Structure formats: structure tokens, C-alpha cells
Amino acid sequence: MAIVIDPASQSSDDDARSNTSSELTELDPGDFPQYFRENLGRLFHSHGQSPYPLPVDAAEQHRLNRQHALLQSLIRGLFVGPVNQALSGINGRKNAVDLCTGTGKWVMDMALMFPHVKFHGLDIVPIQTRHPLPNVYFVIHDVAAGLDYTSGTVDLVHARDISYAVRNYHQLLCEVMRVLRPGGLFVAGEWAPYPSMGNIYNIRDYAPRTWEYFDLLRMVLSNREISTVPTMIRPWMEQLGFVNIEVREYRLPVNGRHATSFTRRTNANLQVYVESLQPMMADAGYGSRARSLANLMFGEISRVDGIFFTYYAIHGARRARA
């Protein structure tokens, strides 16, 4: 099911922001050698095993926080699926885990909404708030190494935009299935690898440089053993025995000739994202080409109507006991 956002119906920047503070995390000097490294003027994680290619500095944290607000507008909330049911307090304290939590905005907002739930946000770098809510726990952990929870003890596992951080999503799903309680819920969200113009127009014809940029990006990611996986998540979940699986597609429009405040925000965040990708492109030997294509792409985006990015929201449950 494709859901098309109506930009005119969206709230302003202030209305769409997270309920929690938008301040960035102030890093302790002692954190740098253990968790961070510098490359081409940007700050990256220093975890040797993680494939995650994007920076983790202030500019990227701002982008992640703005994306959090954009996604709230896009899916009209913090989640898609029967999360209220999964986190119902009828049977006592609940446990929820957010994989690759980033700045922790989703966890903090959810913790306000569900104060009876214990939330764990996992990430490989400490860029979350140093003042979490009483029911929030941020943990430095690489999810690719498995989930350090007893089998059958977690009510909700949330994984939003994590495909860059895991090389084996199927293996991670096995771990998710293991830690979920019977009836527990898995909620995921991933972006399609290419922008689109729907079934009527071919983006390769109307915005060829835009398509070429993302084709280059996909090749560079593939060379780093990073795959974009949204269309594979459902069949993998079916294979592992998840039930009540649902996939929804949401369309996030970009500027075109008739820009709105919402599409301008989308476009601004896209520009920061492309800039964050530039060190990876340069390391792969495509820095100049990527920069040139990006400039041409943003020219196309400003002239061509109907370009959008597709966000896949997927959820499914571990089968409940009979």
C-alpha cells in the first residue's frame, strides 16, 4: 500500500519537531580516542567491525534529528503498527529495544509516551543525551554482534534506517526473533535505494543525473558490503516465522518547481545527507564525480516535479503461545 504525503497538510518546522530537547550531545574529551576518528574534516565512529559509513558529528546529528521530525510528519506519529498493544501495561513492566538509536530522539519521545516501558537505545557511539529520562537506558553496543538480552524477554524491537550499520540483516532478524516474547513486535523502517517518480514516469528519463548519483551510491555501498534491504525484510520475516506482517510505503516528496515549506525541509536535509556521504565517495575514488553529480541532481530536483523517496514501514510479531 503506497501512502502519498500531502505537503500542504504538514505542520510547520516547530510543530513537527520532537517533544524532547533538540540540543546536541556534548562529548567528553575522553570519548574521542575510544569511539571516534577524524577523516576529511568530519568525525566518524572508530568501531573497527561496523560498516556504518556516515559521520557522527554535529552536522550529521542535526540531520538525524531533522529526519526524525520529517518521519513523524510522514507516518503521522512515532510508529506504524500495533505498538500500543505490544506495550500495554496490563501485564506489568514492558521492555523495548531501539537498534542503532543514533541521537536517541525516537527513544526519548517514546519514553514520554510510554512511561511504564523500559527503553534501551543501542548504538556504537555515545551521541545521545547525557540526561535520559528515568525509563531510558543508552547502551554502547554493535547490534551486528548479536543482542545481549535473554531469549523471550523483549516486547518491542524497533529498527529505523539501520541498513548501513549491518551487513547481515537476516542474521539480525534471527536475533530479534530470539529476544522477542511470544506475541512481541518488531517494527522496522528503511528507505528505498533510489528516488522515484511512480509508475507513470521513469526517473532515468526525467532526472537522469539524480538516478545516476544514487546508482553510484549503491555501487559504492555494495563495495563496502552494505546492502539496501527494504524489499527483502518481509520475505526474511516470513521465512523466520513472524506473523501478522504488514508493509506500508510512504512517499516523501522533494522540491520540484512548486516548493512548499515541507519539501524545502526535505531538500535541505537531503543536501546535508549528500554532504555526509562525500567522504565515503572520496575514499572510494569517486569524490569529484559524486560532487559533480550531486550539483546536477539538485538542479534537476529544483526543476522536475514529482520526484519522491519511498520509506518502507514494516512490522510483524513473534507468534503468541496458543
UniProtKB/TrEMBL annotation:
<dbReference type="InterPro" id="IPR029063">
    <property type="entry name" value="SAM-dependent_MTases_sf"/>
</dbReference>
<feature type="region of interest" description="Disordered">
    <location>
        <begin position="1"/>
        <end position="29"/>
    </location>
</feature>
<dbReference type="InterPro" id="IPR041698">
    <property type="entry name" value="Methyltransf_25"/>
</dbReference>
<protein>
    <recommendedName>
        <fullName>Methyltransferase domain-containing protein</fullName>
    </recommendedName>
</protein>
<feature type="domain" description="Methyltransferase">
    <location>
        <begin position="97"/>
        <end position="184"/>
    </location>
</feature>
<dbReference type="GO" id="GO:0008168">
    <property type="term" value="F:methyltransferase activity"/>
</dbReference>
<dbReference type="Pfam" id="PF13649">
    <property type="entry name" value="Methyltransf_25"/>
</dbReference>
